[in-house]
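note to self — DONT lose this again. spent like an hour looking for the file last time. sequence + predicted structure for the chain T wanted, 356 res
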Amino acid sequence: MISTLRLFSLNRLPFETSTAWHLNDLGEFRGKQELYTRQSPQRLKTLRESAIIESAVSSNRIEGVTIDPKRVRDILVAPKPLFRDRNEEEVRGYRDALELIHKSAAELPIGNETICRLHALTRGRIEDAGQYKTKDSDIIEWHPDGSERVRFRTIPAEETQEVMDALISDWQRCLAERWVPPLIALAAFNLDFLRIHPFREGNGQVSRLLWLLQSLQLGYEAGRYISLERLVEQSKDRYHETLEQSSQRWHEGKHKPWFYINYILSIEKAAYGDFDLRVGEVKAPRGEKRGRVINGISQLLSRPRGEFKISELEQLCLGVSRDMIRRVLREQQEQGFIVCTGRGVGAIWSKGNNYK
């Protein structure tokens, strides 16, 4: 296997124009980053806490792991939660891995030890948590009629350690020798990691944690305040589509990684755009908590279905009382920004005539 990074060093992957545009846009965003992060520490702390919660829920949901919305606060905020099932343990584990990255990104080298540590946190008490796979495990697509399709053949178990060692070495050499711009290296590393599939399960989770860790180490801070996982979940079909497109002939070193690389860069851009928007909203003079509720309403209404329940808004506004949330909902309703259908906890909120 020749990694995507190694192909860059051999000049086998000429750049695409669209990739250069993404990099230019991200360069401009990063130039404004210091202005964003000069905001009130307490306000930025609120964004960080929200991003961690959103990320833990979204990343697991991408993999089909869900928990009762009413339990989100208990699982992700309580110091020592009592788990009701395996799903709750995994969601909390992902949250703990994020906390580690947020606190210690600079001290976590991209290596086997860090990768296995992140996997162990997300998998809880599973026997092979934190260990590379010992049996071959291809990526299978199951259909409703019971039939199956091998979407991708991963690296055999017996070769996993050697191939991971090579990938990590290529990452370090790429940064040192500047084979490509660092963000392209990040996206290429992510693609190769997913195709190697080093763990029996949990590879998607670890890939997103590494994405955040590498972003912070490269100086791209938006993921600290905006959930990259939420943005991936909102574009999940595109995520899987570009990953499959870039996987064709990967084993032969004849794949086209730009589909997935450009997707990664587009998510980074979306995170910065969202950060820019939220910083402005968080600074709203009418109060931080009110601003958080208004931001949550906007975020939920921007989803494809364009509606939400109050329980979903509460998940985005942890630390804000239900009375405050209801007060802001009434204000927005009176101004014609939103409308309500139904009563009680089952009521549906959607866009009003004056919604902008």
